[in-house]
Amino acid sequence: MTTTTASSAPVAHFDLHALLRPVLTALRFTGHFVVALVGVIFLGSASEH
Question: What's residue 39's pLDDT?
């Protein structure tokens, strides 16, 4: 059990890091869109009140 856990831990960590890299890249591109969308919604609701 210990050997399997020790072997799986680095692999999972490497996989997680490899998976996070494209996710962070995608967030960088979509971040501007999300901020603009939230801003439009906030301004829209603020002007309604």
Answer: 93
